[in-house]
Structures are given as C-alpha cells and as structure tokens.
Design goal:
alpha/beta, 2 domains, 157 residues, 17% strand, globular, single chain, five-stranded parallel β-sheet
C-alpha cells in the first residue's frame, strides 16, 4: 500500500513537472511571438484638421515616438481644413520639427490642395518637404483601403 501511495505521488509530481514545462514553453512562445509582432513594420496615416497648436505639437510628438519605435514603418500626416497653419513657414508652431521629420524617407507630411486654395495659400508658403494632394480626405480613404492604420489627431486635453 505504501508503494502505491509513493508511486501515485511520484506520478503526480511528474505531471506537475511536465505541466510546468509546457506552461513555461507556452509563455516563452507567446512572448517571442508578441515581440516579433511588434517589430513588424506598420503603415499609419494621421488625420489632422485642427487649428489648435497643441494638436500640431501632439501630432509631431506621436510621429517622432512611433518612427523611433518602428523605424521600418511608414507614416503619413494628412492635413486639411483648419490645420493649414501647421505647414506654413511663417505660422507653424512646429515648423522645425516638421522640416526635420520630412527628411526621413518613411515620413510624409501632406496637405490638401483644396484647403490651400480656400485659404489662398500657395506652395511657396509651405515648409520645405511638404507634399500636396488634390483631396486630403480622399488621400486618407485611399490609405485606409490599402490597409493603413488610422489615427485622428484631436484636442483631448
């Protein structure tokens, strides 16, 4: 009887040891998979319509942080409507940041030509490196259709 009890306890401890090994193996696999998923390049389009300079600063901060965290990823900031001042040499609160960011091949700042026309802005007034598209909203929709992630920048105090 004592032998059966010891044998049962031995089997029980083996089951715990095997279960523990599988749990550890599963955790290692999950952790490794999670790390590799985070390293996969992403494509993100930022939608900026606000005239609020805090939103402009937050947008630049977000793009910088994400570009540093995911250097192989692509980022596109699309500005239209009230955000036009964000890309004007003489009015932008983030001009130097944008000028530095657009030097990266994976970061684009794009402004809507329709917005430029409504605000009587010409391309010579834009910060160097800013690109234009005929329609900012259509640009965002096109990127989303291509699988790009979408972030709406807004003032969330």
């Amino acid at each position: 009887m004592n032998f059966l009890k010891k044998n049962h306890e031995h089997q029980k401890s083996n089951i715990y040891a095997v279960s523990k090994k599988y749990i550890i193996l599963l955790l290692v696999f999950f952790f490794a998979f999670n790390l590799s998923a985070q390293e996969k390049p992403v494509k993100i389009v930022f939608d900026v319509t606000s005239s609020n300079t805090k939103v402009h600063q937050a947008t630049v901060r977000h793009v910088k942080m994400m570009a540093n965290a995911y250097p192989e990823s692509e980022f596109e900031v699309v500005m239209y409507s009230g955000s036009i001042d964000m890309v004007l040499k003489e009015k932008s609160a983030v001009a130097s940041d944008i000028a530095a960011l657009v030097k990266n091949k994976n970061i684009k700042f794009i402004v809507c030509e329709g917005t430029m026309k409504r605000h009587k802005v010409d391309k010579s007034q834009l910060i160097s490196g800013i690109e234009t598209v005929p329609d900012g909203i259509l640009e965002i929709i096109t990127k989303q259709a291509e699988g790009w992630g979408y972030i709406k920048e807004s003032n969330n105090n």
